[in-house]
Amino acid sequence: MSGYVGILVSDPWLQNQFTQVELRSLKTHFMSMRRESGKLTLRDLASRMSRLKVVGENLTEEDRASCIQDLYQNLDEEVDFELFLKVYLKLHAHASTRTGSVAKNSSAFLKAATTTLLHTISESEKASYVAHINNYLGEDDFLKKYLPIDPSTNDLFEIAKDGLKTLKHSCFCCSKLINVAVAGTIDERAINTKRILNPWERNENHTLCLNSAKAIGCTVVNIGTQDFIEGRIQLLADLNLKKTPQLLELVGDSKDVEELMSLPPEKILLRWMNFLLNKAGYKKIVTNFSSDVKDAEAYAHLLNVLAPEYSNPSTLTVKDTFTRAKLVLEHADRMGCKRYLTAKDIVEGSPNLNLAFVAHIFQHRNGLSTQTKQISFLETLPDDAQISREERAFRFWMNSLGNSTYIDNVFEDLRNGWLLLETLDKVSPGIVNWKVANKPPIKLPFRKVENCNQVVKIGKQLKFSLVNIAGNDIVQGNKKLILAYLWQLMRYNILQLLKNLRFHSHGKEITDADILRWANTKVSSSGTQSRMNSFKDKSLSDGIFFLELLSAVQPRAVNWSLVTKGVADDEKKMNATYIISIARKLGCSIFLLPEDLTEVNQKMILTLTASIMYWYLKQPVDQDKPSGTSDSETISNSTLDDSASESSIEENGNL
């Protein structure tokens, strides 16, 4: 194992904006700048950053100076490395917007699939996103008086600001859109809805939306509470066997079903499209939503199969691709499909808009048999809801870290070991020996095993319980062992965040029992009698303990008039959804579902409790505390009681 120690940043959000390679390069530049004068101030950065790529190449010194002056009042403030990184991110975004605006009629924002990645949005894309919002939310009782958004303005990019004249409660728009994509993600009872919101209430609304977006799989890296969030739109929600079992028609026999189930929605959409095109006698294979559909021929054949009653013979005989694209869109209009693109977008191969177009066609009319005999095969598949929920939680957590590739299925996408190594490097910077790692694409199986062997080796170094686990188990997609590893990795990350936040000076390791005791102490100190005996305490299913914990850490967080007694199952679920939304609104990054609370999934209960604890300990020290005491001392000096000792989850994944 390499002895290199990675570059650590105290702010986890800031740490996740950069790879270790980027941090090393920026640290070198920073140290060089500071050595030149012995002191580095904000005023100095405009000239000194000229040597940095993107920031130096695409902005003049005057541009950089103007931007920094707009961001900071005291230009004589001394710059440490973390402030340097924050300024760099802002300038990088500004420079990227500059380069993106060279294209006619374009807007730009940071997309979060990888760190500091620019995504340029054309006016057509903007109009399509606006149309999607107007279409799906236009009849909402609360929002219809504020919609539609005008696509000719930049109101779409202002949607995260709660001061927008035409959309004062924009969080409602974001939350509704998130709930359209994944129903029930945000409990609207948790949203601040009074007519005039103060800055803290607006920030809570934005935080709730951002954390909820992360929880449904949107990547939200490089995005603050006043920035635009970008994720997969609701149109892809039905592209799975659970929502559309007719997709089984796409596979030749039952042995291919598992492969189909592991595909991301975009790949399923392509397979569906090619399945119907083959029926139509179209010989080409469509492999993307850009170059392969630019001539509009594939669209013409697809729509002829799905809606022959609206076909126009001229569509396939016309020579001009632009004219053919217009005829295709007219065909789609006659079918009743909402438009998400123009003929120009088709011939220019806009991948996002073409994907949205095909997804909407699928949603409107998929052409698959509703009587297929294969649907009965679904009944023979193991329906392990626990595995499914845990896979979802770990997947969304890993995607929230900003790895280089979006993960659609942990059992498939982690098999070459690379994304696991990236995640390990995020969680414990410098622990991966990149010199012996094999970067994708990896064709030789033994190279994948080498990566996964290093993953297992690092896990043992971090004291994970990895009995009888070898790298080849990950390559083979062993579900139980992969989930056991990911749980320990996620748990390690949570405990390290807590340790680095308050306990690094004492070198104290945080345990499950510490988290349990802290939660019980907070609830007890608020004057209530609730108690959590362990993270698998069945009494937690009513949600009352966590509502009291949230109220203890932030007295105004819970509106008790909205809380149920938690006796019936529906009451328990109402409390659970409220708890999750309140925690996200405070700033907790959590990935559990209401069922994890009502069924008392001890792993997810631990992550929820630890996230609330982490949020609380990050807050400024409470002035009302007795002098000389702190939460860290309370935790480090307490004696473990028997219930706390017994509560520690079967540590590290002996599942």
Automatic annotation (TrEMBL):
Check the record and name the InterPro entries matching this protein.
Answer: CH_dom, CH_dom_sf, EF-hand-dom_pair, Fimbrin/Plastin
Chain positions covered by the region annotation Disordered: 623-655
Please tell me whether the keyword Repeat is annotated for this protein: yes
Taxonomic superkingdom:
Eukaryota
Which SMART domains does this entry report, sorted A to Z? CH
Subcellular localization, as worded in the UniProt entry:
Cytoplasm, Cytoskeleton
Q: Which SUPFAM superfamilies match?
A: Calponin-homology domain, CH-domain, EF-hand
PROSITE patterns recorded: CH
A single cellular component GO annotation: cytoplasm
Which keywords does the record carry? Actin-binding, Cytoplasm, Cytoskeleton, Repeat
The answer to whether the entry has keyword Cytoplasm is yes
Report what the protein is called.
Calponin-homology (CH) domain-containing protein
- Recorded source organism is Salix dunnii
